Structure formats: structure tokens, C-alpha cells
User: Fold Thymidine phosphorylase from Ceratotherium simum simum.
Amino acid sequence: MAAPVTPGPSASPAPVAPDDLSGGGSRGPPDPPPEPKQLPELIRLKRDGGRLSEADIRGFVRAVVDGSAQGAQIGAMLMAIRLRGMDLEETAALTRALAKSGQQLEWPEAWRPQLVDKHSTGGVGDKVSLVLAPALAACGCKVPMISGRGLGHTGGTLDKLESIPGFTVIQSPEQMQRLLERVGCCIVGQSKKLVPADGILYEARDVTATVDSLPLITASILSKKVVENLSALVVDVKFGGAAVFSSQAQARELAEVLVGVGASLGLRVAAALTAMDNPLGRSVGHTLEVEEALRCMDGAGPADLRDLVTRLGGVLLWLSGQAEAQDEGAARVAKALEDGSARDRFERMLAAQGVDPGLARALCSGTPAQRRQLLPGAREQEELHAPADGTVELVQALPLARVLHELGAGRSRAGEPLRPGVGAELLVSVGQRLRRGTPWLRVHLDAPALSGPQRRALQEALGLSDRAPFAASSPFADLVLPPPRPTSTHTQQ
Assistant:
């Protein structure tokens, strides 16, 4: 695991009276501020285990934004942070510096209790944001979601939405406010105006093996949320074979840092711990996940996806004071899926963010087969079959994601184009009994066929056992909540 966030210094210097510039000695002019350190010196300091001051961190972030930091220097600093870690104060300082690298979002004061958002640390088949943002808007929330692209083997929300022809992820702050007024939600990316430093570092992390750095994850997530001026945030922290962190204990460490740093920045953050060994839902790949998100907004779709959407939504409605209990909030989100109001908000969001209104309407009102015709597809399909009788114990998400990455669903370098139609459909569910030869996976690919190693890797991802059929459990494992407000009347569930 990456070097953790460690506690900062516990002691603080004694206050100095405003007119005592010497701090207790003879009066005189204040000492001049120290010269800012050059980037090689900052990199060397962190490489050797030193602590960066807030001014050091601001200097590094400023160099990233103005272009004076070379790519090699950015990569070196990211690796130094990955290996040496940051304490809580450094992590909070990095979060503030990233957030202040661009424009701050300002909303009407009356919106304050309604402003909520959700973020995920990244999973395979994780299309929760596509469903939850419009569902929350249908419940009366304002959701200014600043999201990201794929990192490593995990799919990015923006990449999925851009597989819909015409969808535009870059929106100005003024456009975001109009979207929240008209629709109640938007899903956008970083731009030169919104957290530009994080956009640069985010791409660099993807190609420098620094995705799993705990302070970098924390600062990246929270910087995008600090500028949103939220009432509440829930972070879906994944753990398991296909997550950034393999164990629940590691995920809890990140969850506690997110909650703690969020509190120090004045942001109420809850962190859900959810399992990521199996793919979430039954579709992996950009257009396939859009289709599955629409099925969820039809009131159907896989049970694990629906469960996670409603639980996370329930936490947010409760945390922001819009529901008396988490269960009540979850029931409201479920109703928005069942009555079509979430799907209506999704259609309106698509049209407001550049999708032709006729296409948005056809996507949201059409059958699954009709939707498939409207979205980019792959040229070929190939089915894999169960090698023996047995009960599906698990479908390993990581090898599935890696093969799809090789086929063009992911990036190997920043800015590389994706193949939106590449993906895979699980034809079975965990707990289901199979007979030998039963189709269990359908791969959508632009290549003529899977290679031998790819086919073997996928077949080995299917875990069969002699167990009797069983019901799959929810991926939701635990929840880390912020300290209660002193005046709050809610009780922690």
C-alpha cells in the first residue's frame, strides 16, 4: 500500500501579539519571507522524507498550472509523495492549493442545503454516478458533479457519458449554474477554470503508477468538491481485488482520512466502504454501462447496482438534512427510479449538455434494443462458455477489466482515444448454478477475435464451486460518518 497520511504536528506555536513583530525579542522590522524553493529542491525534500510547507505546496501547484513544471518533475513529485506520504496538514494544504488553482463556484444562498455530491474511488462496471445524480435531482437536490476520466483499469464517468454522441463535459461555471437551475444536476469535467491543477495531476497519475497514493487520492477527490460549495458529500471507497486498495482495512484508512480532511475544510463527508471483487452490475464498458444505467432508471437493472444507488442516495439526503433517516432517504431515491422521474432528469441533462434532444428522448424512452442502435457499438461479439458444472462463486473484475483495457476500453497514456463500444456483458450472476457449456460472458470487441491469452484470462476469471445456488450479498460493507454537528437533531444510524 502507498505511504499513508500521517498525523501532523500536534503542537502549535504560541500566538504573538499583533504589535510584537519580534515574537518577544527586541522590536524591529519583520524578517523577509523566505525565497520560494525551486522544484528540484521541493522534489528532493519530499523524496528524502521531509515535510512540505503550505507555501511549498502552493509553489508546486502554481508551477503545474503555469506550465513551468516539466512533465518529468511532475512525475517525480507524484512518485515522491506516493512513496513518502503526506501528513494530514500537508494533505489539507494540497487539497486547498488544487481547489484554489481555478475559479470557485458560487451558488444562490437558498441552494445551500440542497447542494450534494457523490464520488467513487473507481471500480469495474461502476456506473452509479450516471444514475444517482439525476435521481438526487428528482428528489429536490442540486448536484454539481465534477467527475473524472478512467484511471488505470477503472472506467471513468466522463468517458462513459462521452460515448453518447454530442455530450459535452466541459461547462463553464455560468453554464453549470444554468444546468442546476433547469435540471438540478450536471456531470462535468475539470477545465482551465475548474480545478485545472488536479486535471493535470489526474492524467499524470494514470501513467506514472501513482494512482494508489492515499494523500493524492484524498486531495484529488476533495479539491473538486471544495470548489462546489456543497452541503454534503458521500465518497464510495472501493476495496477488493479490482479496487485501488485490496483490503477493507486499507479502504477504511482512506475513508477516515477523507472524512477528517473534509471536516478540516468545512465539508461534511461520509465514506461508504463497498466491495469491488466482482464487477458492479452486469455490464462493463462505456456504452454498455450507459445502457445498464438507463435500465436502472427504468426501475429495473441489476440488484447490486440499484442497492448501491439507493443506499448512497439515502446517506446524502440524511446527511444534508433532507431526510430524517438514511432509510427514508433511500426509499425516496428508489421511488425516483421506479416512477421515471430520475430518467426524466437524465434526459434533460443530456439535452442540456449538448446531446440532440431527439436522441436524448429516444435513448431514455426506447427499449434496450433500440438504445443499443443509438449508441456506438463494437464490430464483433464473442461468447465464452462455462468449462464445467458449478455455482458462480465470483467473477473476478480485475482480469476482465485488464482484457477490456487491452482491447481499447482504457488508456495506456494520457489523451489516448478510447473505443466506446468495447466491453463485456455478464450473462450470469453470482450465486447462479451453471452447466458446462452455458454461455457466461459476451465480449464486444473491435478486433477480429480475442487472443489466446485474453481468452484464457477471461475464462480464469470465472470462479465456480460445488456450493448450492445462493443469493449474492450487497457490495455495501460499512459507512464512516463525520462528527455530528453540535446543533444537529439527527441520530447516527
About this structure: The radius of gyration is 23 Å.
